[in-house]
Amino acid sequence: MYNICEKTASPRFEESLNTVVMLLTSLLETKDIYTSNHSQHVAKLAKEIAKKLGMNKKETELVYVAGLLHDIGKIAVPAHILQKPGKLTRTEFEDIKMHSEIGYRMLQTTGSLFTSVLPMVRHHHERWDGTGYPGKLKGAQIPRGAAVLAVADAYDAMVSNRPYRIARVHSEVLEEIKECSGSQLSPQIVAVFLDNYQEIKNSVMAEPLSKRISPIDWL
User: Which residues form the HD domain (predicted)?
Assistant: First the structure.
């Protein structure tokens, strides 16, 4: 469960916030069958990477929450684009690219509830070389949590079935992650992920999928 203040939030309030997160992610998964469980996979993977980076409990929980919500803006993207089996047109790709900004704005409307994860949701598609979106942030300009999500998101996307291709084998995916170091992805985070891959994978697989959030003062 998650709360606004570890010592003062009531169980009812914590449960309400968990319900909001579960509702949002379930709405997205209902719209896009290929997104099913993707948010939970990314959240768990990103949390384990964050631990290996030495991030503290609050930081790792923030990364986890952002992982659950990172693609929430895709609710506003037409289903025929999300599930298109062929190559996207330039216009369709531009529509897809809007999801991180849309998700950011959606979560802004909740007031202070998701303030701490907004930068990660907004910037998880930035590239280390500055050619990503929406802000074309480069290197250390990218929020660290967003850079962690970028690695987790890229990995899970490649090992999962998508409308336009079947899942790729893990060895190929790890090699591509390595090749993307310094261009698309943070070199430090890629190195930590690859060096600890088996342990991270085992930790992720040991826990059941969940959209629930641990109690912590993360706002």
Answer: 35-158
SS3 162: strand
User: Distance between CA atoms of 44 and 66, rounded to whole angstroms?
Assistant: 11
* pLDDT per position as a tens digit, 12-33: 656 667 777 888 888 887 877 7
Closest CA to 148 of 37, 35, 70: 70
Total number of domains in the chain: 1
Listed in sequence order, the DSSP H helices in 1-69 are 11-31, 38-52, 57-69
- Global pTM reads 0.88
**Containing domain of residue 49, as a range?**
11-206
CATH number at residue 34: 1.10.3210.10
Task: For residue 165, list its beta bridge partners.
Answer: 162
Answer whether 18's CB lies under 8 Å from 2's CB. yes
Q: What is the pLDDT of residue 164?
A: 73
Residue 216 lies in a domain: no
Burial (CB count <10 Å: 0-12, 13-18, 19+), residue 90: exposed
What's the rounded Cα separation, in Å, for the pair 135 and 16? 32
Judge whether 211 lies within some domain: no
Instruction: Give domain status of residue 4, yes or no.
Output: no
